[in-house]
Design brief:
The chain is α+β, with helices and mostly antiparallel strands and 385 residues long. The protein folds into 2 domains: 249 residues, Zn peptidases (Aminopeptidase); 123 residues, 2-Layer Sandwich (Alpha-Beta Plaits), CATH 3.30.70. The protein is built from 9 helices and 19 strands. The strands form 5 sheets. Strands 1-2-6-3-7-18 form a 6-stranded mixed β-sheet, with helices on both faces. Strands 9, 11, 12, 14 and 15 form a 5-stranded antiparallel β-sheet that branches. Bound molecules: zinc ion. Zinc ion binds next to loops.
Length: 385
Amino acid sequence: MSAEDILKKLVSFPVLGGQSNLEILAWIEGYLNDYGVQITKVPNEEGNKASMHCRIGPAVDGGIILSGHMDVVPVAGQAWTTDPFVLTDKGDGKLYGRGSCDMKGFLACCLAVVPAMVKANLAKPIYLAFSYDEEIGCLAAPELVEHINTFYKEKPKMAIIGEPSLMQPMVGQKGIYIADVKVNGSAGHSSRIKQEVSAIHISAKIIQWLDNKMNDLVASGQVDKRFHPEHTSLHVGLFKGGIAPNIIADDAYFSIDIRTIPKDKLDDILNELRIFCDDVEKEEQKKYADFKISITENHPAVPPLDTKESCEVVQLVKKISGMSEVDTVSYAAEAGQFSEGGFDSVICGPGSIAQAHRADEFIAKEQLNKGVTMIEKLVSEFSHS
Ligand SMILES: [Zn+2]
């Protein structure tokens, strides 16, 4: 099957982040089995979703992981002009469909080259690692990475995360942390604001602290010119609280979204935030004993990616992608998690992130071909001469 045929099949499985991916996984498993490749599944607790990994080539150290995700983002509310789950060739050199570029295109490139991988006389192994629930917070990757680390006796060295990058090697990614904050104050008549504790007023103080922290980091020189914006961002994008102008709000909720550049440590920022909140709590509990600020992690933090340009994987990906300039990305990907798991990681895949997550998502055929060529070159790089 060509990459385009495989992509057509993959796009036909409308698996959104959060949904069961067992059907698309079964198809991929069947395809791989046809070439004698056995997969290992890493299921979730309920057994309705699973990641997979497999090795092609010898069980020796120094192999490379090709990583992708099987889920896609929703299409509801978007003005599609084609059926999002039917890969459509409009004759303009582009293939339209949800996930065509993010990132079933890369999966299709990997799978299309599997017959060549199996036939090749590989000196070092190539692993495929496909996850689920990437689009709702890179949820499955930590378990998948750990499973790869414990399952294989040999140690893979590198990973390519095939997110759309127009085939450019991407060596950096910001970390992402999202949390929900709940503030419990005391209700009362608005005139009693000095006697009661307003959850909204306290929330405002915490939000101001976040804004100040962001500005302090920038002022102290914590910037990384490779990223846009070049600093860690601390942001509140959701706020709920209060019932009437003349009632002190006893509840308020807001979200925190922190995107860290690699040199800012998320744990340090969160520790400082916790200390600030603890101090506020102690102070306000003098007025209202049940006053509380609860911070709940929305999902495990996605660590940043910061792969040194001198790393073997960067040199390798430059060579096989044919693109010699590296850059960074500002979206979330599983690369930080693979890197944290001990694999030198680079993001590099066909298609543009500009086409991802929107109506009429497409991948240019030329990009799909380039993706296949990159994996073919990887096979020859990894083969005995
Ligand atoms: Zn993606």
